[in-house]
Amino acid sequence: MANATELPNPYTPLAFLPPALASQFEEWRYVMAATLGAYLWDIGLNLGNDYALLFEHRVRFPTIVYFLSRAFTLTYILTGFISSGELRLIIIL
User: Fold this and answer.
1) DSSP class of residue 18?
2) Which residues touch 46 (CB under 8 Å, ≥6 apart)?
3) Under a CB-based contact definition with an 8 Å cutoff, are residues 17 and 29 in contact?
4) What is the Cα 54 distance to its own chain's centre?
5) How buried is 9 (Cβ within 10 angstroms: 0-12 exposed, 13-18 middle, 19+ buried)?
6) Which stretches in the chain have pLDDT values below 70?
7) What values do phi and psi take at 8, rounded to 5?
8) pLDDT given at position 8
9) Is 43 within 8 Å of 73 (Cβ atoms)?
10) In this structure, is the dihedral angle defined by the CA atoms of residues 79, 81, 83 and 84, taken in order, positive or negative?
11) Which of 22, 28, 51, 81 has the fewest CB atoms within 10 Å, i.e. the most exposed one?
12) What is the pLDDT of residue 86?
C-alpha cells in the first residue's frame, strides 16, 4: 500500500502546492495564454493595415512609435507567458 503522504505525481510542479494556490496559478497561466492568443489575433487581423502604413505612406515619428509599441507589447506578453510557469512558481515557493 502506498504512503498517504506521497504526492500523486512528483514530476508535476503544481503537485507541490496547496490545491487553492495551484488553482490560482493555473488560472493565471490560462489568462496569460488567452492574452497572447488575443494579441496574436489582433496582429493577424491588422497585417494588411500595418503593411499599408509602413510601405504606402510616409514613415514619420508616430508610425515609428506605433510599431515600437506593438513590438514591445508583444515582447512583454511573450515574456510573461513563457515565464509564467517557472518564475512565478519559484517566487511562490
Assistant:
1) -
2) none
3) no
4) 27
5) exposed
6) 1-8, 10, 85-93
7) -65, -35
8) 67
9) no
10) positive
11) 51
12) 60
**Backbone torsions φ then ψ of 84, nearest 5 degrees:** -65, -25
Q: Tell me the pTM.
A: 0.74
Q: How many CA atoms lie within 13 A of 42 on its CB side?
A: 10
- The domain spans of the chain are 47-93
pLDDT tens-place string over residues 78-87: 988 888 766 5
Read off the amino acid at residue 31: V
d(CA 91, CA 88): 5
The residue with cell 503522504 is: 5
Q: 50, 52, 87: which is closest to 67 by C-alpha?
A: 50
What pLDDT score was predicted for residue 91?
Answer: 57
